[in-house]
Design brief:
Elements: E1 2-8, H1 11-15, H2 18-25, H3 34-38, H4 41-46, H5 51-61, E2 93-100, E3 105-113, E4 116-122, H6 132-140, E5 152-153, E6 156-157, H7 160-176, E7 181-185, H8 191-203, E8 207-211, H9 218-228, E9 233-236, E10 243-247, H10 260-265, E11 267-268, E12 273-274, E13 276-281, H11 286-290, E14 293-296, H12 299-314, H13 326-339, E15 343-347, H14 352-365, E16 370-376, H15 383-395, E17 400-404, H16 408-411, H17 415-422, E18 427-432, H18 437-441, E19 444-447, E20 456-458, E21 464-468, H19 481-488, H20 495-506, H21 513-519, E22 521-523, H22 529-532, H23 541-550, E23 558-564, H24 577-580, E24 589-590, E25 595-597, H25 599-605, E26 617-626, E27 629-638, E28 646-651, E29 679-696, H26 715-719, E30 734-737, E31 740-743, H27 775-784, H28 791-795, E32 804-815, H29 824-830, H30 836-847, H31 852-862, E33 867-873, H32 882-886, E34 892-894, E35 900-902, H33 912-916
Parallel strand pairs: 7-8, 7-17, 10-13, 10-15, 13-14, 17-18, 18-19, 23-28, 25-27
Antiparallel strand pairs: 1-32, 2-3, 3-4, 5-6, 5-19, 9-16, 11-12, 20-21, 21-22, 23-29, 24-29, 25-28, 26-27, 26-29, 30-31, 32-33, 34-35
Length: 940
Amino acid sequence: MASNKKYWQSVEELKGSSVVETLRNNEFVQDIPTDEFLGDKETLETSSTSRRDFLKYVGFTTAAASLAACEGPVRKSIPYVVQPNDIVVGVADWYATTIADGFDFANVLVKTREGRPILVMPNKLASGETNARTQASVLSLYDDQLRLKEPKKGAEQISWATADKEIVATLNELKTANEPVVLLTGTLASPSTEKVITAFTAAYPNVKHVVYDAISESATADAFEAMYGTRALPNYDFSKAEVIASIGADFIGDWQGGYEKSYTDGRKAASGKMSYHVQVESNMSLAGANADKRLVVKPSDQVYALVNLYNEVTGESIPSKATQIDAEIKKLAISLKKAGSKGVVVTGLNDKNAQLIAFAINEKLQSEIFDTKAVNLTRQGNDTQVAQLVADIKAGVVKGLVTYNTNPLYTLANAADLAEGIKNLKLSVAISTQNDATANATQYTLPAPHNLESWGDVTITKGTYSLMQPTISPLFNTRQLQDVLLKWSGSSVNYYDTLKEFWSTNVLGGASWNQALHDGFFKANVITSEDEEIFQSAVVITNTVSELLKTTSTASGFELNLFSSTALGDGKQANNPWLQELPDPITRASWDNYLTVSMADARELGFENPVKDNGAINGNYATVTVNGVSVEKVPVMIQPGQAKGSVGLALGYGRTQTLKEEMQVGLNAYPLYKNGNHIQYNVSIEKTSGWHKFACTQVQSTLAGRNDILKEATLNQVSNKNLDPKHTWNKPSMVSYDHQEVEAKSIDLWADHNREVGHHFNLSIDLTSCTGCGACVVACHAENNVPVVGKDEVRVGRDMHWLRIDRYYSSTVVDKQHDASMTIEEFRAQNPRLSNKEVERKYTEKVLELSKGDLFDALENSAENPEVAFQPMMCQHCNHAPCETVCPVAATSHGRQGQNQMAYNRCVGTRYCANNCPYRVRRFNWFNYSENSEFDFNIE
């Protein structure tokens, strides 16, 4: 039995569609609109045309897309009269600080120039890691559109003194009458802020602090409290794992804050050891795409799979239900038991009982990866208290509400009930960085500073304290929550002094404050002797399973998985163009959320994703109804690897309040997010009329058959010293020379560059560690000031990302005829003049005799659960770059250090460089984006 692995990037490519062939042969798919620049033909013929205008016209008709103008915009510069001592022009300063916006928490370094933050990077000293949103947060700092600038009462601007006076007076009235007031915040994870809040509630005993996370992990915190006595999340060190079993937990993405770094630390091919990861899921997630084995089932079957795994690991026989993956679950249980303490089970099911079962399996394994002491404190929301708050406000029990950097009128499923109740409150205050829906509904709106303008501290995990410090002077008339509460409490001490005193007394233990501020964190030994034998309650698993199975007993119809996208997360940064334009790691779509549907369900429901000859993708619309709540005009994306009977939809989109018009994209899925549960059963889907226009890059960057750019190997192959890579898993590219197959790099048309003097540029990426998350794409945007071009331009293939993450699906075609036929080596021997690629193609066509129809049928079955590979793709700085040699005006050349260099003002726009780039990474400036009002995506 032989197999041929086929790589593909889209369903159209899988089909062998003529559209894909057209795209391969026509890289630049739209004619240049010369009339828009130069007028119509008649005008040109009757006008007096200068030589320069003539060259413009010739340039456009030969497919040039921009011109190097002689004039430049006039800029006025004002030099320092007296240069500040702490600023050296052109020399960057770096600050160690912490990002903590209630959803994303990260230890970071912030690069500043002339007092302005311009780049966020992980603080490796603190084992920090960043995602796309933390990288993009530096742009949200300058969001002139969405950020609040002055205190307001209703629509009227007021002073801080007036706001303080009136609000304190009302607070005192409510305290005297003993009428309840609630302080509603997201997860703060700040010990010094908790002290400030404690002082505030002591001054106003009628105030209660409630924590609300837009995307909930409340059930996990409830389960951990039930079993271990502390309301927190367990921590996981996946770098220690030998076997990882995940039931619906995208822990490389946003699940419980994400564990990407520790996961990749445990998968280093050079060490000869890698964790074995099995992912059970319905949506194709980042964790599933990176897994060694991916098992595709509906969410309801994930519940049964978890129970069956518990039975197999513990030897118990609690009643459950058979699933189609039970055989694989048994194999997984054997692997987990063999790994013992090096095994771990996690589940993304936001159900207390499901989490208790996962905890019980880890206790049975005595898992070292499962940490119940240095707990995760980044998700402290309490769904029960939030539900009670909404009910009390609606009933008129609660009389006052103060919110901080949370937007429940957008994110709550029953936001309408809260909005109606807020109108009747005696006091409603929103302390917020953004002018969002909640801020617009309250009596008072008080502007809070951005993370990068603030002081603070954060405990991401118990025992590690992180400091937050300002990296820029406040841009607007803002005040921190802590300073607001201290002032309302009657204290004359500011928050900075409170923070320093708290750290001196409770954290540092005599260590240096300045050193901690320099490092950005301080690690303290806070694991007490009482924690060594941590409390464990007697959880009756039989009852737990019985309660869990009740959730699926009435499941029918489709099952919906609501998730946070890599780009927008919970939606806080929806006005950030870097994030909106970031292609999704899996679908490669940007500027949208959509309903992901399996190929089989799409066929039954009549959904299609036709591809136009310019690479643009369209999709049908659907109405999605859950629990009597309908969301209409949901665009549909057919997703390979989606479980049949399930659909997926991203949260965080559909915001409209005060966002720039271009950012008001997608639809709000939070109304379907009932009870904070991302799994919703009994979902109905109805196809509706119309076509949606996607901005999707998955078909546009064709590599014209250069499939050998992507190479894969197993750990056994890489570790086997007896294998010669050149003849096994890492075969070099070959070309035909003098009727012989030789290595491509042995043939050269140019003389070699002199490398004897100076440094030589070298770039390498550990593809084993790349998970496809896209954080580097946003970082490249920030570092290189790459323009945002918008949905329409991305749709027609004009995205400007200097760095992209190519996502490849792969399927294996097996053909029984091969056993009785000649081998590919025998076929190659009979055809010595054919290249390797031609041998493989003709062997498949002539020997295997697999028709295109049979090939598609075979691949379509594999496409129900394809393998996924990610490959970052950027300029390779080729030593003999074809983009350099084809340029007619030598605009691109080779540097002494091995870099491909570009003289932009010499370029005349022939685009020969892009046509000749084998990696399709050359980007062409179709417009002067920064000076064109049509591309006003700047939020500064």
